[in-house]
Amino acid sequence: MQTFCVIPAFNEEKNIGLVISDVKPLVDRVVVVDDCSADNTYNIAKKSGVTVLNHIINRGQGAALKTGTEYCLNKGADIIVHFDADGQFLSQDIERVAAPIKNGEAQVVFGSRFLNRDGNLKMPFLKKHFIMPLARAVNKIFFKINLTDPQSGFRAMSREAAQRINWRQDRMAHCSEIMFQVKKNNLRVVEVPIQVIYHRFGQTFGDGFKILKDLFLATLVN
Amino acid sequence: MLQQIIALIIIAFFLSRLYWQKRKNHISFNEFLFWLFFWLVAAVLIIGLKFIDRLVADLGFSGSGIQVLFYLSIAILFYSIFRIRLKMEKIEKDITKIVKNIALKDEK
Known about the structure:
The complex is a heterodimer.
Chain A: E1 3-9, H1 16-23, E2 29-34, H2 41-47, E3 51-54, H3 61-74, E4 79-82, H4 93-102, E5 108-112, H5 125-143, E6 155-158, H6 159-164, H7 174-184, E7 189-193, H8 205-221
Chain B: H1 2-23, H2 29-47, H3 49-59, H4 65-107
Helix pairs in contact in B: 1-2
């Protein structure tokens, strides 16, 4: 089974080299999608000998993941892992996230920061006790999605699942949209505990509203 | 009456500007026609304000004619902003599609 890892990167020259060298030995192929970074991200990624795709205009993380995932499908990937370029995820967790697909237990695996106590030890207080529970409640009440981590960017999907899930959100809302699509397509889902090291706050409360707004607009356009 | 005259003067000012813009070729003929139509309609509505007042009252609105025109224009504005929003969203999706295809093509 071929495991490909997609890493969308935007202005990550400080972290991308290290992330690539961490991830590279663990998967069959690393695909970095440079989302029109203004810094040296593209060159650093290119030098480390992995596949680098280049967005000529910044289109957001969701769009970069889409580009990378489509590339993986074209190149015959069996398992596609979505990873972050900012060094907040641990590369050792890739094995854990991909395992349920390898064993045939699931078609989509979400890494969750809330399944073990260590996973979110350093999560900012406001985020842990206010934003996340609220996002979870929105997911549960409005979309009937019952996952412990409402905004997990660490996920793996089988080839078939990647072909069936078609997210159209370019920016932050893609996380939620992927969850909806997984639910809609009745794919088998497993959550596994992962660890996250926080360098920065990440999505704020205002971002949460932006996500909801984007999702609402999308229902009107599609 | 005075208000109507002031409004007509303002419209005359915009019409003269429009004429000059057309003469300097800053706007296309179609754009010129659109704004000419727009301001002429505005002038007609202002001249016929008494008639509109009566019409609006007959239709059962409590406000005066000019107020109802105001409500209408706000409704039209909201609708056009909504349409622009949807159109932009579609264009964004199209741009992403193009960027994605270029990224995938360049690799090969």
